[in-house]
């Protein structure tokens, strides 16, 4: 059993109610407690009954932060393009400005925190597929479990209004107790996968060939084109069944699930966009791909050939150049190795160059996200022209695919991944997405095969066979 010891929560709530009455504004109380280890997946899973549709899950590749959130005490969302990064940041800052924070541990990823992201391209014509997600969409959870550095922390976020009284404290205690004592739920098997529909594969290949012709004589150097698989199940699939498999099979990835209004965006991406911890900033260049070998010899051979392949090295270098430029605008020191290394995932290996910087004082993570998104690993080069090309050429409504997804805490620390190797789960159906960087040397058939490999982690997690 998990128990939470002594609490200052009551006092915090009463003082927040007084402040709410004075200012006629809701006031957040956020309390952080250390607790005995709870498995974050079980916490997410046990929250199904009370908080289905209002949950999120996050794990980085090294498990430095595993965060699971239940309920929404505040939704911060904006549609449209203009200033969505700054609007979101301002609203968040206003929200936490008056917050009463009861936290003696000061660990990043605990206390007031919002989880969510930004759609890939708010100017792309919308199809309805992503109607449950806004162009900028963040949840502040009511209850959150954070495992950081192997220690578990439990955050309770309570909104106090001018109409509340001391009863609110009792209500929170009761609700919290129910959550912490919730029994582990069995993870249901995935329902049968009845249909896998490849959306317009021939047209996709034609688009690639057309683009390759264009790239040979154009200021455009690279454009990432993506495609979609639509899956149908025998009955509604549960996010935790997919999440459970991803946690088992994709340990080296960022693993995420983000529920909104009945849909769930879920995935296992190897790619960091940006992480900020104090003054340290981390990013990653990930582009250039090849499959895994059947045995270690052939795998090594494939890896070596990727490290020497001109087409893939160029595809990768565009990403390095752009990220270097964006980082140098906001960081005093930027360290980037001269040559890429291999990042090996279960089904694929990539060219990978890590990036570290020392943040210039006061640059918030959203400015970094704004500058970096989309890197040429997801958009292309030059950025603006590439995004316009994708908007014009791609049949797909990317929504949150290839977009920044992650968290920001009240001290400005946070991490955003690039949400590739991902899927939108909608009850009995799901859409999977995969794309690849097209350069002047690309070949439509081999890019098509590359996307097929990139579908595999999610297809497997959904109980499908390989294409
Ligand atoms: C766009 C995707 O992958 C990117 C990340 C790594 C390698 C890539 C590539 O080699 O094309 C892509 O740029 C995707 O998986 O949907
Ligand atoms: Mg590629």
UniProtKB/TrEMBL annotation:
InterPro entries: ADC_synthase (IPR005801), Anth_synth_I-like (IPR019999), Chorismate_C (IPR015890), IsoChor_synthase (IPR004561), MenF (IPR034681). Residues 201-454 form the Chorismate-utilising enzyme C-terminal domain. The active site is at residues 222, 271. GO terms for molecular function: isochorismate synthase activity; magnesium ion binding. It is an enzyme of class 5 (isomerase). Pathway: Quinol/quinone metabolism; menaquinone biosynthesis; Quinol/quinone metabolism; 1,4-dihydroxy-2-naphthoate biosynthesis; 1,4-dihydroxy-2-naphthoate from chorismate: step 1/7. It comes from the Bacteria. Its EC number is 5.4.4.2. One of its GO terms (biological process) is salicylic acid biosynthetic process. Its cofactor is Mg(2+). Mg(2+) binds at residues 315, 450. Keywords: Isomerase, Magnesium, Menaquinone biosynthesis, Metal-binding. Catalyzes the conversion of chorismate to isochorismate. Belongs to the isochorismate synthase family. This is Isochorismate synthase MenF. The lineage of its organism: Bacteria, Bacillati, Bacillota, Bacilli, Bacillales. The gene is menF.
